[in-house]
């Protein structure tokens, strides 16, 4: 005769439930996840602000001419580099306003633009009236990017008889 094995104590019925994690574990993991998402959002916003706030060097050139025509010293300082202001002697608002108070009727046309890493070169034909005669002056403007802002760094006349040092033509 065969006998069935004797039942083992505790083996009858379903297995005991697993112990659940305490609530503070879930709160800690959720808080860490939210902090990580917040940091990622802040980094994304900073990058977006940097990309959208880059500005345009041609807008800087337009603002420069506006500052000359309206004698707006704050706009002039915003659109030029300190080195340019030192080189031209327009180092204070009083000097700038005195130098630009008689300036009227200056018109300009951007004829070419060369982009380089960190700066742009604009070829401009400037027109103004002098004793009833229209004068055209070809100029080269150097606009550089510094500290996230575009600023006018230099102006030089273009000699049409000499080769262009920038483009080689």
From TrEMBL:
Listed transmembrane segments = 23-49
Its recorded name reads DUF4878 domain-containing protein
Which species is this record about?
Answer: Candidatus Brachybacterium merdavium
* Alphabetical keyword list: Membrane, Transmembrane, Transmembrane helix
């Amino acid at each position: 005769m065969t006998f069935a094995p004797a039942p083992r104590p505790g083996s009858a019925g379903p297995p005991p439930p697993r112990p659940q994690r305490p609530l503070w574990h879930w709160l800690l993991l959720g808080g860490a996840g939210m902090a990580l998402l917040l940091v990622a959002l802040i980094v994304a916003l900073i990058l977006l602000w940097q990309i959208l706030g880059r500005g345009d060097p041609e807008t800087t050139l337009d603002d420069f001419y506006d500052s000359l025509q309206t004698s707006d010293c704050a706009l002039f300082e915003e659109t030029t580099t300190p080195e340019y202001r030192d080189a031209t002697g327009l180092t204070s608002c009083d000097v700038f306003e005195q130098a630009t108070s008689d300036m009227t009727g200056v018109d300009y046309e951007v004829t070419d633009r060369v982009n380089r890493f960190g700066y742009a070169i604009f070829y401009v034909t400037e027109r103004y009236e002098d004793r009833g005669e229209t004068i055209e002056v070809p100029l080269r403007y150097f606009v550089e990017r510094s500290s996230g802002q575009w600023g006018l760094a230099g102006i030089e006349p273009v000699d049409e008889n000499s080769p262009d040092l920038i483009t080689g033509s």
